[in-house]
TrEMBL record:
UniProt-listed Gene3D superfamilies: 3.40.1190.20
GO molecular function: kinase activity
SUPFAM superfamilies found in the cross-reference section: Ribokinase-like
Organism listed in the record: Streptomyces mangrovisoli
Name of the protein this chain belongs to: Sugar kinase
Keyword Transferase applies: yes
Residue stretches making up the Carbohydrate kinase PfkB domain: 14-294
Keywords associated with the record: Kinase, Transferase
Amino acid sequence: MTDPAAVRRPTGLFVGLCTLDVIHLVDHVPAPDEKQTARRQVAAAGGPAANAAAVFSHLGGTATLLTAIGAHPLSHGVRADLDRLGVAVTDLAADRDEPPAVSAILVTERTGERAVTSTNATGHRLTPPAGLAALVADHDIVEFDGHHMDVAVAAGRAARAVRRPTVLDGGSWKDGTERLLPYVDVAVCSADFRPPGTSTPEETLRRLREHGVTWAAVSRGARPILWAGPDGGGTVEVPLTRVVDTLGAGDVLHGALTLDLAGRGPLTARGFADALRGASAVASRACASFGTRAWMRAGS
């Protein structure tokens, strides 16, 4: 009998944004000059790459986050949250005193919809670190969220050199995305991700494939996920759930998907559809609770 403790955990490197998320559950988004008392509050590390790394770790992987956090007092709370979640951090801004990016998030209780403001990665211009190639080679898979683009492109190039699969979380088209796509094996994008000259999910899938992405998909909230690969495409149904909070649903999907892909080997059409199906089930469970962490505490 195999000792469970001896089973190797998949390793994932997550390259991108880390923020301090301050999340309020509200009756409605306040009107100008309106003051409102929030029903609940959550403060946690956030950002697409950070949240995906947390999910990867929670579901059984070993995650490393390559990002910028810094040495500001607010940064200590971000680090502590990631440490509690088992996410190792390589901080490319460790010697900087500026505060981390803070995302102010309002979640409407009745619908679960969210409104978000953040500086994202605009406060940090990062250069690829020495030893990046070795860091990439030490992991089974690499995931990008499109932030800190110069670092992402360098990591993608390194991943291609050592044949590590790569995954793109395409939340939106960003400056430099066209430089990253040649190093992306799997891209799962939101409906807001629109390459220049596209206006529909079908056009997005076609453009991603033209840029060399082997497997591409577009998530559309509760609607079926559209996907395309070398031999065609299809749809994957999203499980129905009572939505409490949609914040981070895409990040959860990417963390779960990246863990699945890390252990699959060469992808097939059926395998990609199955991976999307399993990841969307995890994301749907996460939408049934408030904040980005409660579903984890519930043992989902």
